[in-house]
Amino acid sequence: MTAPAPGPDPAEIAEIAGRLRLAIQHLLPVLRSRSAPGDLTPSRQAALAALAAHGPLRISELAARMGIALSTTSRMVDLLDSTGWIERHPDPQDQRASLVALSRTGRAVLEARRRETAARLAEQITLLTAEEQRALDAALPALEALSERATTYPGELPRGI
After folding, report:
1. Does a structural domain hold residue 124?
2. How far apart are the C-alpha atoms of 86 and 17, rounded to whole Å?
């Protein structure tokens, strides 16, 4: 039985990381919506995405998933509640606590943003050569694995890239 081929050395990994960071940084404007409601900021979108992915959560659980302070999350939840994008329900395990969940309106806003983002990315992908498109497709499993391991909340990019 043969050992797996060694991967890139640390210097090559650092080069890959730098190039990937730069590529993501340049793609961020494409990922940010131009036509979504002005009050759907990236952090609010991340909160909606976390609720869509993980169902009803306590505010403390949402804060932990997003990697932000509880007080910041609490203010965001108040704002999202006032827009009608989330709903609050009593926690069946602790009546003193509440759970927040994505509302139908919030789900519709999030899905519209995701469709728009996918369409804008698809438009950019059509500008690539066929070979570049195939290379991007081949790289997706590795990028998806990296995303699953690296994000504090699935489906969203870490802040500060």
Report:
1. no
2. 36
